[in-house]
Amino acid sequence: MGLTCTQRTLKNTPFVDTRYLVLELDGPDMPKQEIIDQLRGVHGILSVDKLDQKGVASVHVTDEQKSEPEHQQTIAPEVGDQEIRDRMLVFSLLSRYPNVGGRLYEILSTIPQDERQSRARQLGHSFGLHLFKQQKLSSPIEDLPEALSQLILPAISPMAEAHLQNNVLAITASKINVRPKKPQKHACQFLLGTLKGLLSTALPGKHHIEKLCCAAEDADDCRFQFQYKNRNEKVTR
Length: 237
Description:
Blueprint: E1 4-12, E2 19-26, H1 32-40, E3 45-51, E4 56-61, H2 82-94, H3 101-108, H4 116-134, H5 144-156, E5 161-165, E6 168-172, H6 185-202, E7 206-213, E8 222-229
Antiparallel strand pairs: 1-2, 2-4, 3-4, 5-6, 6-8, 7-8
Helix pairs in contact: 2-4, 4-6, 5-6
């Protein structure tokens, strides 16, 4: 669904032996009833009693949920073998494609702030490599224009509004960004990594993707310019 629970606390009510589990939700805009229906399907939630405009939900929980401590639940930091861990994280993102924003936000929330953009780009690159395998290409990609029109645009369009002009890709309304009204830099870095992963698989050789502007830096959209050179020709722009 693309929603992420950023905080949860238990609050007392005027009723005996009854408390509310208050969830603070972050994610794309969607009808209130759709959010309520999804919350009602979560194990341990009896009913959704309130959902305000700020994304704070008050839910009635079962007895087994009442024993949880009244503080924010933290997600375990990254642990274990990096290659295995990253593969599992990428598969968890692929399983949510094209609505990857909520899961990406959840993953990056476990990573120190100063490392999030680089990790987002790394995860995006691996994501792009695997996303390539899911694309149904009618024929092998021969050059950059074919890669952009037959691979990049079809793969990215389910996740965002994408427009292609020559070798420049413009991105707006990205589902990778869980806060549409406040674009996030890590979403742009994940997208950049994804583009590189897709292109490097389709066209082995030297390629470069330059970010011309970014919505997270007050631009109207994110724009990427593609360059590619195989072993026998000059750079294509």
